[in-house]
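To whoever picks this up:

The nightly regression suite flagged ABC transporter ATP-binding protein as changed. Nothing in the input moved, so I suspect the structure step. Input below, exactly as stored in the fixture:
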Amino acid sequence: MAELTIAGVDKSYGHGEQRKQVLEQIDLTLGDNEFVSLVGASGCGKSTLLTLVAGLQTFDGGDILVDGKPIDGPGLDRGVVFQSYTLLPWKSVRANVEFALLAAGNDSASARRIADEHLALVGLSQVANAWPNQLSGGMKQRVAIARALSYKPRILLMDEPFGALDAMTRHQMQLLLTRVWESHRLTVLFVTHDVEEAVYLSDRIVALGANPGHVKAIFDVDLPRPRDETIMESAAFTALKRHVLDTIREDMPALPAF
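Regenerated output under the current build:
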């Protein structure tokens, strides 16, 4: 059975004449340990779809199932990482990770042990006692990833997690994410506006069309794993990147003539 199933999902905002359909008849299935990226023009509903899967918003119709069971709000089976780091500034790095574990029912000793294991996983053991305002953006995002993984979710949901980082840090985070994904063996739904990032990370890429958001195209990423930066120089990588970009650009408004 597929781990995540999205079937006929509709989502709108507002009422009456102000009602706006954001997503229409979204059908998508993610298998166990599959890495799927959502791409598309701005406003096509990528982030909205991810928040629906996270259980942070309700939807108008359709079904979202994890292992065949309908979701009913947020759950420990789904970890979420946003572009903003969402760390608690009054807690240390370790305490930020422990906070999620204690909320999940772990005792203090177990929470500390698991927190330290996951901080080591993302290479942050040395700053466990630091405060969030002492960390760089990339380090804050690593804490957020450690926290999201600490209670062992089946699915990791990521909404533009590296969008605020500089190019070098972003690439380091991509490498880290692939290493963590390969070691944790979990399903990932990843929202990004960066097509190169989507091709580099994913097993499949889902392009959403706009007005309202719908599944326009799905691309299989037939590139070998494990991947490193040299794969970006291959003809297959370049061709797929161009194909995905062309599909997205069809929904973008034309630039005015000068």
